[in-house]
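Researcher: Next sequence.
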Amino acid sequence: MKAEPFDHEALASLLKTPAGDYASIYLAPGVPGDALLQGPIYVKNAATGIETRLVDRGSRSTEVRDFVAPLRALAEDNPFWKAQGPGLGLFLSERGLHALRLHTAPANNWWLGDRYRVLPLLTGGEAQSAYFLLGVSANEVTFYRGSNDELHRVPVDGLPHNLTETLQLDQKTALVQVMNTPVGATFHGQGAAVDHRKDELREYFRRIDRALHSHLAGASLPLVFAGVDYLFPIFREVCTYPHLIDRCAAGNPERSGMEVLRRRTVEALGPLGRQTFERDLTRYEDAAGARRTTEFLSAVLSDAHRGVVDVLIAAEGGTIWGRFDPTAETMAITNWEDPIGCDLYDLAAFQTLLHGGRVHVVPATEVPHGGTIAALLRYAPPVTV
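Model: Next structure:
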């Protein structure tokens, strides 16, 4: 078995939960080698706890043993544990066991319910880790799909190979040359010639954009541009992909190894989640007077199940165990021992994501008005008289 990187597609897959039992196990990042020593022990203990809870629910012992068998097998898989990085998410259902590599799982925990527990995946911007990367230089154009810890080159039909071949230029006789330096690149030459070379670059980038347009149709991941600084503003002028981020991974990608390129890209993406949160927070405050916000958990749960929540803001570490009946729209507070209870904050996040909303998990001090949960609604609820 191999743990896969966590990204938007993995999250979307976890939201697809037909009727059944679902176990979520989170292993927080630890010291090097800790996964090999402590991981199997925790997974075995979690398997025992899941067995007990299923039996308490009335499941037959043979069915229970079959359900947790993949967990017990994984606990004995030494090559798997030797290969593990900082953190891990394990997701078990009747369809099998799936493992995701994580960077910010807050604590070791497990949970059994009628869906997966997703809130720990949203802590620390974990879900923002997937992206596209376009590397551009005069001699090469490359396209990648990446995450916090991986970068894979992806072929794109029609993507130009390089500037000279695409525009059939003779760089030795061109009026304007582009001088590459250790810190970037600059134009040199006379004014009209400089404008001419910029026009050539715009045409080069238009051809790149046309190839990407077909490849990225319907995609929503952020696109990062990697190249020397002066190229990015020109590419941004012609790029039609709506999710190009405003910062580039500066430097010549030809001269950067894959690890350096990945690190620069992650650094460029760093402020993206924060910027999105700040925009949503401003939207929240603007909508407060229009009855499009709520800070009561029971109301948030009702709105989330109806698909009305556009943005959910929850405090890190916030947990309230209980039950929620979406038909009657009633909530009851219980505790972790409740065999059919759940983390109600997690339920609100799950339903928000399931209906296409966005979830921010932030320090408690950043939740509006000193609360622990807040929701921005797509529209104001009807007034009852």
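Model: Residues 169-190 have pLDDT under 50 and may be disordered. The first helix runs from residue 8 to 14.
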